[in-house]
Design a protein that fits this description.
The chain is an all-alpha fold.
Length: 443
């Protein structure tokens, strides 16, 4: 049995190293392990079907669709204007605009890539003309991209709920405070760091606005951005008000975004709508295969006792809850350096369940820890999807982004992860307040 499991895991990591599609790596690893241990593979079709036959997967599809529509709808420009009105006149405020816009975009997209895909083309060329180094602005936007994972609605939170069978509403709220702390930390670090990457140009010589002008601009930009801000407001009010389910909320978000793009801002075209829809279909096809074959793989591992083996191994190192949580963070961070976040959740969450039960860890708190870890994986080299996308969109070299991004990672990202891990109040207070202790449980 152990030989089959080890061979399967070895094949899995070799497949990742070779860059093979993860869904086929999952399938191949499962078949190899089953053949070696002479286990019947009749469980695979049923397991695959039940893995993707879930309403939460439909919610993920709708939120991904809404996120793709945003880049075509003109919403991003209005959010940037609002962010500029709020923070654009403080020290380093023009870069803070990108961080604050990432918060707003996170509340609309639920994921990371649409954030930088929408904001880098808008902000990087303009701020470069004002004297900011292109690589620094791109690095800040890439570092801020995973705010889309933490500000609800969140696609990783939906996936965690699908795997761990937890309340979608509770998980959405569990990452709000860590996400806002992360945004505040980025703004604080940028305040002290931006001068190293800023050389004013003639275009930047604009006299400071008066208080009256500032208030007027905030009012105008807020009014213009209200249709965009209405999307997360309607979604969250609908979910927590019991008006509709999470998958219905996703469909409302997609329809609302399309209406705003077509009828309110009038920047969305049929071509852009179709391109966004195609991207969503392809993404969901990949995610369905990944989810289905990933659950088949982990089902085999769990059936062969890998979850219990992992629990006993970690408890053999230490039975101190705080050291174990640190070990889990280290494991997730290392995996995040090489594997995308969604496969990590598919593999790791089921394997951690025996350990979680042994330590009596609140599953909402665990979800917040895992989502923050998965978000950090987006910005953690060497395999950091945000860096790859950022280098292409901003036309800067990979190594040019690393320096500034590592500063934000070590000064903000990792400390917020530790705070989320060791202060359960940060992730459990808001869900308990809104939904009640019977939903979240003790923390």
């Amino acid at each position: 049995m152990e030989y089959g499991v080890f061979s399967s895991l070895a094949l899995f990591f070799v497949g990742i190293a070779l860059g093979l599609p993860l869904c086929w790596v999952f399938l191949g690893s499962t078949v190899v392990a089953a053949l070696i241990i002479a286990s019947p593979i009749t469980f695979m079709p049923g397991t695959f079907f039940h893995a993707i036959n879930n309403y939460v997967l439909m919610a993920i599809a709708f939120f991904i669709w809404a996120g793709n529509l945003i880049s075509e709808s003109g919403i991003a420009h209005r959010l940037v204007r609002l962010s500029h009105a709020l923070v654009g006149r403080v020290r380093g405020g023009l870069v803070d605009v990108g961080i604050l816009a990432a918060v707003f975009m996170g509340a609309l997209t639920g994921s990371s890539l649409p954030v930088i895909a929408a904001l880098i083309p808008i902000l990087v060329p303009g701020l470069e003309k004002l004297g900011y180094q292109r690589r620094y602005v791109a690095a800040v936007l890439c570092s801020s991209s995973f705010l889309g994972y933490l500000i609800p609605p969140s696609v990783p939170a939906l996936l965690y709920c699908l795997i761990a069978q937890q309340s979608v509403g509770a998980l959405f709220l569990s990452t709000v405070i860590p996400g806002l702390l992360l945004a505040f930390g980025y703004i604080l670090v940028n305040t002290f760091l931006c001068s190293r990457y800023y050389r004013p140009t003639g275009e930047a010589a604009r006299p400071p606005a008066t208080l009256g002008e500032t208030v007027k601009e905030i009012g105008i930009s807020t009014w213009v951005a209200l249709p965009a801000l209405g999307c997360p407001a309607i979604v969250l009010f609908g979910i927590y008000g019991g008006i509709f389910t999470p998958n219905e909320a996703g469909s409302v978000a997609a329809v609302y975004t399309a209406i705003v793009g077509f009828l309110v801002y009038r920047e969305m075209t049929l071509k852009g709508f179709w391109a966004s829809s195609q991207t969503t279909i392809i993404t969901m096809g990949m995610l369905a295969f990944l989810m289905g074959f990933g659950v088949v793989f982990t089902r085999l591992l769990i059936r062969e006792g890998v979850g219990e083996m992992l629990t006993q191994f970690i408890l053999g190192i230490s039975n101190n809850k705080y050291i174990i949580l640190l070990s889990v963070n280290i494991l997730l961070l290392i995996l995040g350096m090489f594997i995308d976040g969604l496969p990590i959740m598919i593999i790791v969450v089921p394997l951690l369940m025996p350990l979680v039960k042994e330590l009596d860890i609140n599953l909402v708190h665990l979800g917040a820890i895992i989502i923050v870890n998965v978000g950090l994986g987006v910005v953690t080299p060497p395999y950091a999807i945000s860096i790859f996308v950022g280098t292409r969109l901003a036309n800067v070299a990979y190594e040019e982004l690393l320096g500034p991004m590592l500063i934000f990672l070590f000064l903000v990202g990792l400390p917020i992860l530790l705070l989320t891990t060791y202060i359960p109040w940060l992730s459990c207070w808001l869900p308990t307040l809104v939904m009640g202790a019977k939903i979240v449980g003790p923390y």
